[in-house]
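ok so i was messing around last nite and threw this chain in just to see what happens. nothing serious, just curious
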Amino acid sequence: MKRKILITGSKGFLGSYFVKEFEEEEVIPITHQDMDIEDKDTIDKIIKIKPDLVIHPAAIRSPDICEEDKEKAWKVNAIGTKNLAIACSLLDIPFIYISTDYVFSGDKDTPYTEFDNPNPINTYGKTKFYGEIFTKEFCKKHFIIRTSYVFGEYGNNALTQIYNSLKEGKEIRLSNYHFASCTYAKDLVRKVKELSYTKLYGTYHIVNKGIITRYDFACKVAEIAGFSKDRIIPLNPEKFTAPAKRPLYSVLRNYMLELYNMDDMPFYEESLKRAINNLL
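result:
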């Protein structure tokens, strides 16, 4: 029997991958135009739709935009998530919330697991962490999915931005001292779908294997796509300026997936090759 699945941010970069991954089910794609998730009426609207599952990738994802408009970030990332979690609880259905590595401070020098305590250092991280808190508080049947630096061949994301800049011969200036994981959107949505058929509720890290800086990632894109790396400029702390502070080390380990023998996430280079081949 087909499940009725409501997906927020369905026209956004990540939301569109979820819509495609679940296309054999009955998908209800929701955009900001359809529903203001931060509005308290959202709860009643979702109850009327009666989905069997809600997947929530919609967010203000730019740390700098969150820093510049804190109130909007709290409304969308925290209150919007709270409203969805309450609706799912009242319907007694599972809720899948897409969170971020930025819930961590970056003070460690080994990968973060699901058993490490979050301690966000910017507004984006704080608002997403409160989304996690509200998800746990209001909806027992929840999956909190932390991921990092998600890329893909479609939509506006790190890979397409870097690829287009390389193609146009533009200079790219990227940090070479913030260490993180990265994640191919197709690998992420496949694994989320797999979890959605289980009752293994809880918090999961889902990233590709390997550690990158943004500069490393751009160089790897150039290498695979056959562009010169000459116009990719590494930025050190003195030259990197942005409104939002970034964690210096936010590498994630898929530890819960490992413990359940479910961690088949590939190394990022392998997934990046697949994405670039599709892009080409």
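not much to say yet. The chain is about 40% helix and 15% strand.
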